[in-house]
Specification:
The chain is α/β, with parallel strands linked by helices. Helix 5 links the parallel strand 5 and strand 6. The radius of gyration is 17 Å and the shape is globular. It starts with 7 loop residues before the first strand and ends in a 15-residue tail after the last strand. It binds NADPH dihydro-nicotinamide-adenine-dinucleotide phosphate and 2-hydroxyethylsulfonic acid (8X3).
Amino acid sequence: MTSLTDRLALVTGASSGIGASTAVQLARAGARVVLVGRDRPRLEQTRSRCPGSTVIELDVRDARAVERALSPLDLDLIVNNAGLALGSDKLPEGDPEEWSTVVATNVNGVLNVMHATLPALVKKQRGDHVFLGSVAGRQVYPGGSVYCATKHAVRALYETARLDMAGSGVRFTTVDPGMVQTDFSRVRFRGDTARAAAVYQGVTPLTPDDVAEAIVWAVTRPAHVNIGEIVMWAAAQASTTVVTRRT
Ligand code: NDP
Ligand code: 8X3
């Protein structure tokens, strides 16, 4: 097992859900964690649960700001997690402004973070870069168009990074969950909490801690092991469209 003691880890989207749980579990495993997001009060809440962590208030869509804030850091581990979906309209009815926000966050944001952080790992010829993909990067579903497209893009970036950085010593991992109960659906349905709750009705979804555990497990494998792809589902979810609900 690789120890995380004194490793410097960056988690984007650390103010909520999977990112917050991952930051807490990394801190428990001994890492010093840099917490990135836009919502400072919620980042501070995560910080209070992560001894030795620091907060950077940052919008991952802003390439210059990301470069300025993250490129000076001597990082060992990056969890490229910030992301969102907006709406579940059929493709012809979607809102182009929302599409731009989703693409800018889930694709450009992920790229901005890679560009600013990978040189530090390459320099020391070791480190981990974890992508938060999704089962939506492996299957599509009605109303998932642009979100699914961005998560397919994340999967393509994971695969290309492995090739472009072969021999660099950097390990790449993509963690691709199915339904996880977080703020994801509340954000997707623009604050409609009843609609968000219905997504998880009659199902025991994955928890953010389930996903965080998988991430910590992957990055603590011995140096010669690279866990590439983790696909994890709620037991009741057979595919993005087949969910067995208790009546
Ligand atoms: P949450 O809504 O709980 O968390 C999303 C996080 O992303 C927040 O911390 C938010 O922080 C951050 N974020 C969003 N936009 C930006 C931005 N422009 N700049 C910086 N940070 C941003 O959702 P989850 O924890 O569920 O989502 C985390 C990741 O997991 C996403 O990539 C999502 O696609 C993926 N995922 C989620 C699944 C689910 O069912 N929940 C399943 C599979 C994958 P802030 O608002 O502070 O900026
Ligand atoms: C989130 C999971 O199935 O709602 O990535 O797209 S899903």
